[in-house]
Structures are given as C-alpha cells and as structure tokens.
Amino acid sequence: MPKLYDAVVIGTGAGGGMAIKTLCEAGLKVCAINAGRRLDPSKDFRHHRKPWDMKFRGFGDPAKRAESYGYMDNEWVEGVWEHEIPFTTAPGTRWMWPRCFAVGGKTNFWGRSSARMGDIDFRAGSLSGAGIDWPLEYREIAPFYSRVERMIGVASTVQNRPSNPDGEYLPAFNFRCLDHILQQGGQKVGIPYLPDRIAQLTRSLEGSPPCHFCGACTTGCDTGSFFSTPWRFLPRAEATGNLDLRTNALAKNVLVDENGLASGVAYIDRKTGQEVEVRSRVVVVAASCLESARIMLNSKSRIWPEGIANSSGQLGRNLCDHLYGQSAEGYLPQLLGQPSVPDNVGDCQIAWMPRWQNLENPHKEKFVNGYSVYPWGGCQEYPWNAMSIEGFGSSYKHEVKRRYPTPVTFSIQAPSLPSPTNYLDLDPEVSDKYGIPVARLHFQWDDNALRMFEHSKQACAELLHAAGAVNEGAAKDPNMPGWSLHETGTCRMGDDPKHFVTNRFGQTHDVKNLYVCDASVFPSSTDKTTTISILAFTLRTCEQMLDNFRNGVHRRA
Amino acid sequence: MAGQDIKRRELLRAIGIAAIASHYPGFVKWAYAGAHDHASNEPTPVRSQAYTPQFFSSEEFARIERLAELIIPSDETPGAREAGVAEFVDFMVAHDTEQQKPMRAGLAWLDEQCGHRFAHPFLDVSEAQQVSLLEPLAYNARYRAGEEAGQEFFRRVKELTVMGFYSSEIGYRELDNPASRFYAESPACPHVNDPAHQHLPPPRW
C-alpha cells in the first residue's frame, strides 16, 4: 500500500513554501512535489562572480540567445531556469514565460517588491465599473499581511498613501543621490517618490543575516538575506519531520476518487520517466498561475470532463498580467563627472512611485484603475548607457566615465483587465516529452493598459524635466506579455460557484479537498506585485484548511 | 553609510554564515561560493602575445584589434588593447553565427573604402585617415547616404568592444565600478544638505 499523506502540495515557491511550512508545523504529514532539483548555492548562485570569471563575461552564450528568457536567465544562474517543458501561443499572441522549476521556484530570484493590496484593489471592479470585486475586504487579510511581514522581513517606511496600506517594516534602504534628485522632481509635479517595500533584510531576522548590499539579488542570495522558501520556510518544515519533499517530480494531474474528490497527485519522475501516484486527504495546487491551471485542466475524469473543479468553465480564464515597459530614460546632469558611488544595492531597486492616478475620482484619467512606476539608475555593474553615447576615441571613453553615475530609467507596472480573449488552455496537438499536453496562451494587451503606458511616459517626462534631468525618450512598445512574472486570474476566487473556481479561501467550489495557493486565485491584477499577497492569502487558506481538519470536513490520514 | 564596504571574509566572520548555512536543508548542501578569491588587487595580466584567433583570420584580427583600440584608446588610462578586447570580440563572434557574416563583410567593406579613399588597406593608413573613415559611421550628424552597411558594421564592432572593455577588470577600474562590494548598511547619499544636488564639488572628470 502506498503511504497516505494528509496533504500533497504541488510546488515549493511562495505559495507552496508557505503551505508546506504552515501545514507541517501544524503536524500534518505533507508530501511536496517539485518539478525540478534542489539548488546548491555554491554552484548555482554565481552572483559574486565577476564577469571576467565567466566564459562569456556574463553576457551568455550567443548560441543560446534564442532560448534565453532574458535578464534573469543568464550566465550567473545557468541551468536554473526551465527549458525542457515547452508551451505554445495562439496565432497573434506573444508570451514570454520564464519558469524556475528548482526547489523554491522563482522566490530564489524574485524582485522582492512587497506592497500590500488594499480595498482600492479589492473593490476595483465596482470603483471602475470594469472587472469584478474580490470576495473579501482588506480588514480580513490585513492581519495575515502583518504576520507575513514579520516572517519574511520587509524594509520600507510608513507612507500614508491612499493607494497603499502600510505594514510592519524593517528600516528602509537609504536613498541614493539619484533618489533625492528624482524625489525633488516628483514633488514639483505631484508624483510620489518613496522608498519601495522590499523583502530584504536591513536587519538580521530569526537567524538570517542582514543584507550585505552586493546588488546581485536576482541571481540568488548566498546568505539568505532576502526572502526565499529554501532559506526561510523549507528548513522549518523539514525540521518538523513531517515533510517528504520529492524533487524532479513533474505534476501531471490531480487524482480523484469515485465521488470526484481529490485523492492525490500523479507525477512524472523526470529521472526515470515513470509515472508515480501519491495519495492524500487534501491536495494543494501551488505550481504558479499558469502551471496550476494547466495541471487542473489536465485532471480530466468522468466527473470532471473539462478539468477538475471546472464546473464554472472559468479554469484558465481571466488571465491578467502586468504590463511592463520603459516609460522614460535619461540622465542626471547634476551627477556628471562625480565619483562612482554604490547605487547598485538591492539590484537598484530602492524606490518606487506608488499609484497616484484615479485616487479621489476613479474616472479622472482616460483609463480606469492605476499603475505604479519603478525607477532605476546610477552606477550599475555594467554601463548599459554606453551604447547610447555617440562616437569613439578618448572623448567617447571620457564621456562614458562622466555619464557613469547619471543614468535613470523608469519602468511601469500596469495591470491588464480580465478579458474573455485572454486565457490559457491545453494545446490539443502538442504534448511535452512526457506526453502531457502543453499550455497554450491567448493574450493581448488591452487599451486600458496601453493608455496607462502612454500616460506614464508623459508623467515621467514631466518628472525628469522638473528634476533637471535630460530626457532621452521612452520605449515605443511595452515589453512582451509574461515578462513581469505576475500572471493572475486562472483560478479566480469568488462567492458564486457558477462564476468562480475557488471560494474566498482558495478552496475550490467543486472539490472541497482541493485548494489553490498562488496568484491564480486573484480575481484581478492591480498595480502591486503578487508575491507578498500570495504569501498572505496562502497563510489564510492553510489556516482555513486546518480548521476544516479540526471540524471534520477533512479526515486525517 | 557610504564607504563602509568591508571585505568578504570579514563579513563572513561577522555573520557566522557557514554555521548558519549548515542548518539550512532547503538547499542540497552548503559549500560557500567564495572558494574563488578576489583578494588580489592587481588585474590579471592579459595574454595577448600568443593568442590565436578562433574565428577571424590573422589579417582580420589585426583590423579588429585596431578598431577596438580606436574606439577605446589607451590614453591616461589603459584601453581596449590592455584589456584584451579584440580577443573577446573574436571569441564572441566565433560563438555567434549571426555575427559572423556581417562582421567579415564589414571588415572587407572597411578595407575597400580605405582603398578608394587613401589607396591603401586600413591598417596601412595614418591614424587621422582611419579616424576620418570612422567618423561618418559613428556620428548621426555626419552620416553619409550609401554607408548604411558601414554604420551597421561600426555599431556591431563598437558594441562588442564596449562589452569586452567594461566587463574586464581594467574596465571596472576605468569606471571605479562599485559592483559586488559589501556594505554593513545600505549605502546612502552623502549630500544630506543638498537634496537637489546643486552644490556638488566640481566634476572629477
């Protein structure tokens, strides 16, 4: 007889990691399934290596350029991002899908920006007249945000912004020269320029040492000084003795019993190619927004012919993403020829410009909802602005040096709106090497998000002008969809089983012992990043699940 | 505060990282990444005498060396030659099938243009003549119709030269690149009384 677990958790990223930790610490026997291997910081994180210590100086093998996911998938973390499992796009769709299947998933390399969502986000549907509201109020989730912030450590300040509830913070990162100059510009044109909310330790926390400000966070941290599940959650789960973590285990489908309840998970052991079944009382799907929908759509049975927990037909639908794009770039003449300073700490992610549009009147602008902007700049590890400087020779070399502390860029983070034409389904014709149908993406930016992008170009140009900066223009087009890694909506939560996949606790309406713990449950995209909300919602979901174990909804194994 | 960078090993001692890490089974195991040592302050000497190009012919490679040197010259500080940039360019092009044809064609184009203008190959004319060939390729205001292929070629060579130079140890020194140093506190702007930065010391360069 195979062992029976209390819970199987698919995925070990933000949602999976929080679920595993919470359930193991509560005494449940948990089997965690992870599609990739465990990382070894000494081999897989090369973030303190200098470019000349690497074969292609960190620029990567040109022969692999076509399959690279870009800025995160580089020579410093070679072999960490997933390239074996393909996906397809519908005609006219462009999609970039960087997936980290290693233990810890994208938390190993994430951007760390960690703003709470608030009622302005949860009620965006009724405020804007577009989209739907979330099935809860901020006051219900606020205590979970607080607990998560205490667990992971978030550096920021109390800002009293109407768009952004404040939280419990470690000391913020200090502002650099460029931040002060841009903040002054922002004050003149009414754009907030404030310390970002960064899940990075400016003080030690529960045995984890403080950040050493090397600036290479998106290639992994060898001291565990920003939050990731392998550093902060999985060790605590393993210490309970309740965790069985299976690696190179690619989830294929959720198993069901004769009543349509979840009875476990079938996965492919990628080392042997064999299919393995693991049985449990409860299944938690936390494979990331798109993978979770793919696994559930592929969980077809007599009772669930269109995929498990999909009686609403909403599984895979309502896909939203953050539109990213360069709203402006330029340089600060105040800093020309000044000595180099360490601007590239925390991957340059020190400040943000939190949503300032449509706050008092939700219809003030030509778009609904709102966006945030992330400023970057200063002395970088590589002078990316050098190619935009004309010429050659000693005068050119001198100008590169003079300009080195001065560049600034602004990147918009704008939510897309749910649309019937933006969704994921299973490709009827393409399977991966294990015979599992691959995900097929259908996605276009909507006019609302594109209007925000144009608005942000104007706003950033005004800020640059007011700051005395030289504006060198904006990108014409936004980045490719998928670039942000902030997909939401494919298992959206809501009260009505006819229209929503899960209830307000991330428990599927159709299958009471199936829970979803990632950004797929978020009914809409906001101007905020997703990770801290995944953590907070997952903590709430797991405590609800534990209540259900206590009150007999679920039986222990 | 700014300037408080501390050496890696001191940092490790201060935070007792090895002891902490041994209790973290979330990863495979802990073996500290710092086995490679950055303690030396002297740039590694660049081997350039015995270099055999992987892609370019020796004649082509000589032109790449000269172009790199013209783009980032050795003046009061070391330039592309000292940083071994031509070797990097050759290495990257050898691994980049998309670059090979246009780079080779561009080098031929350069010699051909030089022949038309000065009756000699590129390497045999004066520096002033070499510069006069490159300027219309390098500055928007001086672009000449019909030289689009040359402009594109110059952009390729310049990009690879810039990549090779500023990713080298010498390039880091040129910019006093502060990357990958370690700080006990988040570095802060030192001009606390001048947030608009209107009264900074005169530019250093």
Structure commentary:
The complex is a heterodimer of chains A (557) and B (205). With 557 residues, chain A is of the alpha/beta class. Chain A has one domain: FAD/NAD(P)-binding domain. Chain A is built from twelve helices and 16 strands. Chain A has helices at residues 14-25, 41-44, 119-122, 124-128, 138-152, 177-189, 229-232, 234-239, 289-297, 394-403, 447-466, 531-550; strands spanning 4-10, 30-33, 88-89, 194-195, 243-246, 249-256, 262-269, 275-285, 322-331, 351-352, 372-377, 407-415, 423-431, 437-442, 470-471, 514-516. In chain A, α1 (14-25) packs parallel to α12 (531-550). The longest helix of chain A is centred in the C-terminal third of the chain and has 20 residues, at 447-466. Chain B has 205 residues and is mainly alpha-helical. Chain B has a domain at 58-175. Chain B has helices spanning 8-15, 17-21, 58-71, 85-94, 97-118, 127-138, 148-166, 169-175. In chain B, 34% of the residues are buried.
Brief rundown of the structure:
The complex is a heterodimer of chains A (557) and B (205). Chain A has 557 residues and is of the alpha/beta class.
